[in-house]
Amino acid sequence: MNHRDLPRVLVAGGTGYIGGGVLKILQQQGFWVRALCRAPHRLREPSHCDDIFVGQVTRPSTLKGLCQGIDVVFSSIGTRSLRRKPTFWEVDYQGNLNLLEAAKQENVKHFIFVSVVRGSEMARLSPIAEAREKVAQAVKESGMDYTIFAPTGFFNDMAEFFFAAQKRGVIRLFGEGLGRINPLSSLDFGEEVARAILASERRNTVREVGGCETFTHRQIAELAFQSLDKEPRIYCLSPWVISLGATLLRPFNYNAYALFKFFEFIASTPDVTGEVLGWRRLEDFFANLAQGMSLVSAERALCLRRSSNQPQDSTTLKAVEVSSQVSQLAKTKLRARFEQFAQLRAKYGTAKAIEMLREGLPERQKTLMNPFIALVPLAEGFRRSIPIFEQLGMEMEVVDLSNQGKDGVLEIQRVCPYRELAAEFGLSSPCQITCDLEVEAIQQAFPDLKGRILSKLARGDCVCLFKYEREVNSTASHDGK
Ligand SMILES: NC(=O)c1ccc[n+]([C@@H]2O[C@H](COP(=O)([O-])OP(=O)(O)OC[C@H]3O[C@@H](n4cnc5c(N)ncnc54)[C@H](OP(=O)(O)O)[C@@H]3O)[C@@H](O)[C@H]2O)c1
Question: Could you tell me the distance, in angstroms and rounded to a whole number, from the CA of residue 366 to the centre of ligand 1?
Fold first, then answer.
């Protein structure tokens, strides 16, 4: 693993759903990661960590040395338990403040915290949101760089719909179920956390985030039944029932009361959507759960890499199938480019159509690539982009060519997803409206980056080969400034 120049990250909450996804992605992208946990056996894959620190956020004396050598702290610690003790004031609030203090003492540069969507609004009704918003405020005032994520529901919350449909055959919605939400996968979220760590323009921001598709709660319930091939049985609970339930619970179990208040807010708010992140789809996630996969496997299968070495058991085959459904979405976008070209060609001729496709491409390439290649060597950045190419059905490998004061990379693509499209649209080769234009645009977007296409599948070569290089000391010059 190459950790060169990458910030060292502490993940608190890595035994949980959100933190587990973040851990996996950070490890995959080559970050050096320390996980804080009270019970290390609860880490799903300890191999995703370079270091495991055993400690309890609720007991500051156990946190000594936790943030030593750490540049960035990420925390998704929080209790979602119906048990009365510890209360979420002790965990979500005081525990996270203890962690913040430990980070400050060790001069950590950047603190990333997970709050809740519509936090300040929700804080008036829900004590959980109030606790997390107070921590978010303390993070903002800490003097460290910060990123506050306020996510809408994650796939693990949506899985509750699925399990209700599977086990009870009935889903009870709070209210009419017409509120809109765009649920998010922890892996898509992890990818955004990685970008937030690297791109300085994403610092000191509060971002409400969600996934790539928006549903009403009722549609999610229907999707759950559909994935199980069951007739939907959906009942509505009036919001006042939730409110009454919360009030009755309050004297006995404050945590349960707080959770009910959280649901009351979500049920009575027409829109809790956030900025769209990622590409993983709830339908595919439910389909995997219906195959009997665990929560974690169901999500991981959405990004499974197709490799000839993988055992082709029925689970793997299903995952590959799901993965290809995802790439279908991305392929629709590819096709749109060829359609646009065909329309322009019909009107203005080939040369002018290609000229018009160039418009705005350098700016788009800059927005796309900068978060990947700013601050890190090219090979690191290119490796991180592999999952994006996989969505297009491509198989990419990256070779670090850095040598003699140059930061260089060789990008190998074994599959060209454009060839069939080119034939369909009457082009002898797709390169002139795809990679040729892109490499040219990259040169314009990053003047100190030299790019060359060395071989092309469309010309009968065995792979497409792209070489990029720049001076080593220009690595930091793309820092979005
Ligand atoms: N999931 C969502 O849809 C969602 C949406 C928006 C915001 N959030 C916020 O994000 C937080 C985390 O969500 P999640 O889905 O990742 O929850 P999760 O799976 O329950 O994970 C919670 C994490 O917090 C740790 N934790 C819980 N109680 C603790 C305690 N007493 N002392 C120390 N650590 C403790 C857990 O460690 P152990 O394994 O040791 O228990 C685990 O690592 C939630 O509490 C919520 O406020 C969640």
Answer: 36
Indicate the class that CATH gives domain 8-290.
alpha beta
Q: Which fold has domain 350-478?
A: Muramoyl-pentapeptide Carboxypeptidase; domain 2 (3.30.1380)
Q: Where are the domains of the chain?
A: 8-290, 350-478
Rounded to whole angstroms, the Cα distance separating 24 from 122 reads 30
Mean pLDDT (whole number) for 299-307? 58
Structure pTM? 0.69
181, 215 in Cβ contact below 8 A?
Answer: yes
Cβ 29 vs Cβ 187: under 8 Å? no
The pLDDT > 90 percentage for the chain reads 56
User: If pLDDT is split at 50, 70 and 90, which confidence band does 296 have?
Assistant: confident
CB within 8 Å of 134: residues ≥ 6 apart: 93
> 3-class DSSP state for residue 24?
helix
**Cβ–ligand 1 contact at 46 (below 6 Å):** no
Is it the case that residue 255 has pLDDT exceeding 60?
yes
Q: Is the CB of 18 under 6 A from ligand 1?
A: yes
Give the residue, by CA position, lying nearest to ligand 1 atom 45.
Answer: 78
How far apart are the CA of 355 and the centre of ligand 1, in A? 51
